[in-house]
Design a protein that fits this description.
By secondary structure, this protein is mostly helical. It has helices at about 1-30, 60-85, 90-115. The chain has one domain (about 1-115): Up-down Bundle (Methane Monooxygenase Hydroxylase, Chain G, domain 1). It has three helices and no strands.
Length: about 120
């Protein structure tokens, strides 16, 4: 019985979200500006005209740095639940598990550092 009530509540919530989304799209389509001109279609960069091409290629180092940031950022997010549930019941086993996790994290950082992944040349 409780499961059915929960599912119905989720379906009602999903329908409300879908109706809200459709309403926003419809309202912006009806009330939004429709007149276009050449001045409005130009790219805008902080109040001045853009210099050079608008579509440029980025060096691969930019992407490598971004991926490294995401990897280490996500691994730090995994530390948060461990810290919040840090209890005596985990004991030495929990300490060893987190130590192994941190060792893998430090090993990965040292590996990338040694391979030159942190250099921006």
């Amino acid at each position: 019985m409780a499961f059915t009530v929960t599912v119905m509540g989720l379906l009602i919530f999903a329908a409300a979200v879908a109706a809200n989304f459709a309403g926003m799209i419809l309202t912006s389509t009806i009330l939004g500006p429709k007149r276009r001109n050449s001045v409005k279609d130009q790219p805008f960069e902080c109040g001045s005209l853009p210099v050079g091409p608008t579509h440029t290629r980025f060096h691969i180092r930019f992407y490598l740095t971004a991926i490294l940031f995401l990897i280490f950022d996500i691994e730090v997010v995994f530390l948060y639940p461990f810290i919040t549930i840090l209890r005596p019941e985990l004991g030495v086993t929990g300490l060893w598990i987190m130590g192994a996790f941190l060792a893998v994290l430090v090993f990965g950082l040292a590996y990338e550092w040694r391979r030159g992944g942190m250099e921006w040349d």
